[in-house]
Amino acid sequence: MKARVLLAIVSLVAAAAGTVRLDAQAPRAAAPYWVLSADGRRSVTAATVGDQDMLRLDDLASMLQLTVREDRAAKALAVARGTSVVVLSLDQGLASIGGKIFSLSAPPARDGSRWLIPPDAVSRALAPIAGVRMEVRRASRLIVLGDLRVPRITVQQEPGGPPTRVSIDIAPRAAYTIVQEPKRLLIRFDADSLDIGPISAGGGLVESVTAADPLTLAIALAKDFGTFRAAAAPVDTASSRLVIDLTAAGTSPLPGATRPQGPPPAVPAQAPAAPPQAAAAGQPPETPVALPGAETPGVRTIVIDPGHGGDEQGTRGASGVLEKDLVLDVARRLRGVLDSRLGVRVLLTRDDDRIVPHDERASIANNNKADLFISLHANSSPNRSAGGAEVFYLSLDGLGAEARKIVESPDSKPVPLLGGGSRDIDLILWDMAQARHLSESAAFAMFVEEELRRRIEMSPNPVQQAPFRVLVAANMPAVLVEMGFLSNPEQEAQLVSDDFKNRVVQALVDAIVRYRGRVEAQAAGRLP
Amino acid sequence: MAVTLRAAALTIITAAAVGAGAWGAVRVLSRPSRGPVAAAPSQARQPDAGRRIKAMLYYVAADGLRLVASERDVVYAEGTSEQAKRIVEALLEPAPEGLASAIPPGTALRGLFIGEQGDAYVDFNGSLRTNHPGGSASEILTVYAIVSALTANLPAITSVQILIEGHEVDTLAGHVDLRRPLPNALQWAEKGTT
Questions:
Q1: A355 part of contact set with chain B, CB < 8 Å
Q2: Cα separation of A97 and A121, whole Å?
Q3: Cβ of residue B18 closer than 8 Å to a chain A Cβ
Q4: Dihedral (CA of A407, A411, A417, A423) sign
Q5: pTM here?
Q6: Domains parsed from chain A with CATH numbers
Q7: What is this model's ipTM?
Q8: A 482-511 residues with CB below 8 A of B?
């Protein structure tokens, strides 16, 4: 038997290493460890031997379907799953898998009739034979199983200020959303669970930092809190730091609260032109997108499409305001806020004054696997008194029977059977894209409408469907927002104001946050 | 298969449009004036010169956001295609008192062809696009004033594709997808008539 041979090897090595066996000390009860897995959270009985945490092997064995056998002659434990075996020496902290010997912080210890093993034996000895990654975090008494995303969160408040600065370390990196409520900021992490470490905060504009729920950190705000700015910076390849600066009401807004209008970014969602360090500070934590589990539904990448551009000016207000300029300005502002507050990747279909063909706008979103597409426009009517914002999603008018079929059976993947003409095939495939997302587009359009209505005037037809060219090929939920009528002189004056633009931006940010909540709830099975 | 047929039909139609478009241009240029409907130039070439039909034409409603139907006299013509031309020409005339036209100034009809399955291809000169004020509301009004005028009055026409100078276009002003025939969409018109 192979196991038998391994036991012998371990015994020999143990013998050669001499007897440094720990004096048997009576285990003392300790707080349990928790194993987090896709199935939930289970406790593992723990004890302290000397100053060493030890975990009950039986608990782990039943969880991982391992068999445990003591070989008294070889003074070893054989732990097996199927044909994989690890042998743990009972004399000293050594173990062997497949002839390869490695050390452990302590040998197994006896607790009555049960065996205890040191925490590092879980990740080093049990994980390889169980065929699953097991990450042990002693400080938080956690064992994370598999690819579960459980970032460790540590919070530190820097002394002094203003501004009051709270640094939140996130390891490994995770995307997050910051939601401002009247008396607190909520930081909701895109993770399976949180491992909340030491929190050292309070004073200045922060009353306390606590866990609001298993995935949310709450910063309770002092009365005179005014505004905040958040920036994320990667600490190393695995972790990132979110820095939140809080300023009191009545003080001047923080510099850089909105993104400066730099040249078009070479890499989308990169920081604005600035010294390298500052650039890093403005960079959103993009890595979570690539982490295992990124396939789960979410809103990680958003494409903003400023309408028109170049010679294609869009509409023009009576006093000369051009739609193409207005929507680019709003798009950049929106990107700035999304970058700093939501930790999502944001791309613009154009970041300067140029013509971008409709299909290219959709391609940018499709090729970057965007989760939302938002086209920004300003309106015009033959009647100068017409005013108010409108939100559109696609109607299938004119897209033909093929598109309708998709809507009727969303799971079908039609391959058009055509006698010839590759151009027609291309058109059909592109045109199918948005048809699959209509109900989500409608849901997002409703959120946008509700959030806009709280802040700006809406048209009598606030949510509509139309066969809009730019939405057709978008392979993700997509809306087109007409923020107001440039043909209405009063509205034209409003539309160019910072206040109006910022209202539109805030409405869109809040709509995105709500939509993200919907997507996550759906993924968790809480919505149909 | 339907798409291939449509593409083939469109090729034939576009080819025809080149010739017919030239004819249309000459015809429009030779118009004496854009007077009242009774003095429409088509009168001279029609055997039933005096005959008229009632047609619903669509104009900008008071709110500037919807179309409103208005019953107008249109010169009678033999055959769906000819009648469709007369209807579009009537739509290009100045709007009746109290209403605004959704069609940009200078727009002229170059040709009109009816394809298979009731698709009408309506070819306009470039003014439809170059004189368009932009904005999705205005563009929707323009497109559906044309689509509705044909589909509401001629049962044989079920959808309408707008061409400019004989060519398919993406959009008029950057919003409405004009690459395929559009069926009528009633939501753009107010209920009732003026």
A1: no
A2: 12
A3: no
A4: positive
A5: 0.55
A6: 2-145 (3.30.457.10), 152-248 (2.60.40.3500), 297-523 (3.40.630.40)
A7: 0.77
A8: 482, 485-487
